[in-house]
Amino acid sequence: MERLDLKYGLNPNQKEAFVYREGGLPIMVLNGNPGYINLLDALNGWQLVRELKAVTGLPAAASFKHVSPAGAAVSVPLSEEERMMYFAPSDPSPLAVAYIRARGADRMSSFGDFIALSDICDESTASVIAKEVSDGIIAPGYEAAALEKLRRKKKGGYAIIQIDPSFSPEMEERRTVFGISFSQARNGYLPSDADLSRIVTKEKNLPQSALLDLKVALVALKYTQSNSVCYAEHGQTVGVGAGQQSRIHCTRLAGSKADLWHLRQSSRVLSLPFASGLSRNDRDNVIEQYLSDDPEIDVIAGWRDYFAEKPEPFAKEERKAFLAGISGVSLASDAFFPFPDNIERARRSGVSYIAEPGGSARDDLVIEAADRNGMVMCFTSQRLFHH
Questions:
Q1: 256 three-state secondary structure
Q2: Are both 253 and 356 inside the same structural domain?
Q3: Which residues make Cβ contacts (< 8 Å) with residue 250, sequence separation at least 6?
Q4: Do 279 and 241 belong to one domain?
Q5: 284 in any annotated domain
Q6: Could you give the angle at the alpha carbon of 172 between the alpha carbons of 170 and 173, nearest 5°?
Q7: Are residues 148 and 24 both part of a single domain?
Q8: How many helices and strands (H and E) does the chain possess?
Q9: Single residue among 284, 310, 336 that ends a domain in this structure
Q10: What positions carry a catalytic annotation?
Q11: Per residue in 50-85, pLDDT tens?
Q12: Which helix (H) or strand (E) holds 21?
């Protein structure tokens, strides 16, 4: 049995913490001292990106916080607006693009993330990560220059984990709660074109871009605490609603994040006159305040020093008009929608394509709502709860 001691458990008072495995661990700590939550994020994140790569054939990345993805993405080229809103370099590698997208999905939630990469971490990706506040990374390997850059993070304490990409765990999963042991078969489901072929709406046109986005959303949901709903666009998640007891709250939470993602690409936000020398994290905070429900610039009086000059407010009606022009967003749910209110809320965030298991007593009402809004909806017959 191989054992790896951890910094501590879920909380600092839970001192005795370690992971172990009969036959040896598939991970190696190259730097730092990861904790219990770090390992949970790392191992869930690794599964997510490994499966995204398997399903799409593209390099993948995830930004994990508290055992759910703040963002996940595959490497789809960045538009100029995306490059600007992500503060991205001009020539990132394909793997770096995947992480830029994953981190940029919800930059506020990604602060202090644990990163998962599907491929060997190259210097381009490490250069992007070096500028972000992050707790650690897991990847199947590291270029020498990339490893050198990452080892300098957090004053040398950055957690760097290498995982054996050929490792395949046993089919049985076990855990212990309150002294009682649970056992179940691992969820080996991977979304395919066939899973998205059962279209139940009048509108049947499901383009390749939407197929990709729905696969990204479904794989992300496999590793998001349930209940969960995921909005996706351009090969990345743009809004994840995790761990809500009511599905409509998942849809609202994820939808509000998707709205912010779209608003960040507006000319109003991209042209904000930030003061020189402002950090990336401060710019994120200012943008979040600027796009608050009360857009009057006086609301952010405490942030005035962050602007070189007072910007024009982004009025509520102006934001509403901008979002009304959004379409082509994909949405996946880890379980069926019990009521059509989820569909109506999704429409407000530009959703055109939906994947959900189906099986609700009110499926007919949900389909009617999708038809009323001209959406394409697939029933996958596959629930994706994760706890």
A1: helix
A2: yes
A3: 227, 228, 229, 241, 242, 244, 333
A4: no
A5: yes
A6: 105
A7: yes
A8: 12, 15
A9: 310
A10: 65-66, 227, 387
A11: 999 999 999 999 999 999 999 999 999 999 999 999
A12: strand 18-21
